[in-house]
Please model this.
Amino acid sequence: MSYQALPYTYGALTEAQIDAIPTSSPKIPAGSTVFNTDTQMLEIYNGRIWLDERCLCFLVDSGVTVVKGNTLYTVGSGTTATGEVALMTNSSTNYPKFVGVATRNPVGGFVSVAHCGKVQAIAGETITRGEGVEPSGTAGRFDLDTSPSTGGFGVALESGSAGNLLWIALQTIELG
Amino acid sequence: MSYTFNNIGGTNHGVKTYNEIFAINRTTVGASNYWNPTLVSGDTVICEMSYVHASQAIKDYKLLTWYDFDQGGSLVYGSHWIGAGIYLCFDSDGNGFGVGDFLCCPLIEDLPGAAGARPLVVKATSVSEAERPMGVALEPCDEGGELAFATVAMMGLWPMKRQGTLGRSEAIYSRTDGTGKVDDAPIGSYKNGAFGKAIDPDFPIITSTAATPTTVDGAQVCIWGTAAEVF
Model:
C-alpha cells in the first residue's frame, strides 16, 4: 500500500469524493477503509455500501424511497416483521421499531442507518438549536420536541427550516 | 506492532469474523473459526458481523485495536480487543460470565469498595439491575477467577444469548434471572431498561472450546448506545 496521510485504503476524503469511488469496476474488497472528512469518522466498505461505526446496513422495503437524512423504522410486527426499513412516522406504535437516520442515499436497495451520534436529518418544521427532537407528522422527517417525552430521540444541534438537512445528536428513542 | 498496515483496510490483520476474534474455541486447531495470531499492542483488525436477509448477505464492521492495558507492567488488566463503545469492565459479584452474556450495572448497595476505576457489571438478578443495562460480554470471566476484568460492548451490533424468539419489531431487555440472556418482554414499569433492537434473531453463541463446539441460542442485537429511558 502506498503512503497515505492516514493509514486507510483511500486516506481522507469528503463524503462526495467517497461516494464517487468506483466500487464495481474494479470491484473493491469488503473491508476497504476511508476517513470521511465531513463526518470525521472512519468508514468501512461492506461490499455494498460505506458504513461508519454508528451505522448498520439495512435493506429498504420494496416500493419505499429513502434519501439521506430520512428517519427510518423497520416495517411489520410480530411474525411479519422483516427487518426492512421505511420512513418513520409519528405513530407511537412505531417507536419500538425506530432504527435511526439514513446517512446516505441507498445503493442497490441498501442503506446505511445511524443509530446514535452526530447525524444530519431532514427537518419537518422550523427547528431551534438546543431543543429536543421527535418523529414528524411528515414521514421520514423530525420535528421539535419542546417538552421532551415519549418519542423523543435526540437534540437539535443547529437551527433551520422544514426540508433542511440539520445536524442532530441522535439518541435512543423514548418508548415510555 | 507492524507499521506496514499491509492488510485490507490498512489494518494489521484485515477482516475477521466475530467468532474468529471472540469465540472461546477460536484457538482450537481444526475449528472452522480458528485464528490464533501472535498479537502486539496496537495491532488492528476489522471485526465482521454478518447475516442473511432475503437471500442477501448483509455485513457490518467494527475497527478493533489490541491494547495492553498494563503497558508492559505487572499483569492487572491484561490485553484486550478494544474499539468504539467497548469498555474494560470488572466482574462485580465475582460470579463470572461467558462470551455473549448480557451484563448490567449492579445495585449500588452491592458495590464492592475496591473495584478500581473500571465499570462494574453483573448478570442481572433483579428488575432494578436489568433497568441499568450495560452491554454484552466479549470475553469470559471465570467465577472467582484471578483476572476479573473483561471487555463489554455497549454500543452497536453484537451477538448475545437470547431467551426464546426475539421479535424484530420489539425493544430488547435484559432478563432478571441471572442467566445473562436477553428477551423482548418488558421487565418493569413502562419501558425501563430497553437497550436495543434485534437485527438478526438467530446467531448461535459458542459455549465450548471444542473444534465442533456446543452452542446456545443467540441473536445479533443493536445496542442503541446513548441515553436511557426516563419518561
